[in-house]
Amino acid sequence: MPSPRLLSPALLTLAAAAFAIGTAEFVIMGLLPLIAADLRVDLPSAGYLVSGYALGVVAGGPLLAGLMARLEEKRALSGLMLIFIVGNLACLLAPGLWSLLLARIFTAFCHASLIGAAAVMAARLAPAGMAGRAMALMFSGMTLANVLGVPAGTLIGQWAGWRASFAAVAALGFITLLLIRALLPTHTGDRTDGKPQAHLPGRVPPACSLSSLICCRRYPKSAACPRNSPAQPCCSAAWDWWRAAG
Q1: Nearest Cα to Cα of residue 237 among 201, 197, 198, 188
Q2: pLDDT tens digit string along 83-107?
Q3: Who contacts 159 (Cβ-Cβ below 8 Å, separation ≥6)?
Q4: Which of 31, 61, 134, 155 is deepest in the core (most CB within 10 A)?
Q5: In the chain, what's the furthest Cα-to-Cα distance?
Q6: The whole model's pTM is what?
């Protein structure tokens, strides 16, 4: 069980954002046969919707990370969640396979940046010495998405049609946006529970992906980041950030 010190409304809101993102990413798996039948395409062609989302994550992450780095974190998360909502509404209204594919790619643009920003904000909101646990709590939203969100979305699609699943995901995003606006502090230094804030170094450069942070958490700095490697500055920043996060 998570420590009661971690179960603050702000951290649970970040977990809810991860839940929404995870549900949107994976719910398509159970909807492919329904989409293929409704749009009169074969199943392999419908499978482009999975590949397209992955392409959107890869392309949108670096692009939006650079843009959102100039905003304070609450505003950045709100903007990314707005992209999420609009993208899922576009999926709901898509008349054909290729318009649905473009909508999925657009939706995926916010995925990497939102998860990365939420992880960093969770660490900054955590009580001192509990940043790693706060990030784990945030990522539990992705786990619950696979356990609860995806089966529920598939059930809705089988009962009311695949478009209803995207409507439900868009509604989930809208609720999460309201929670972000209501419960997250404007600045991560403005704690909501009166507890001491975790002391972390400045932002990790946007070019440093979340996978870099995880790699540097798992392996020693000398092993993960060869001294003469072109990636050494990025890995060093990620390593220092992780050490401070504990």
Answers
A1: 201
A2: 999 999 999 999 999 999 999 999 9
A3: none
A4: 134
A5: 57
A6: 0.76
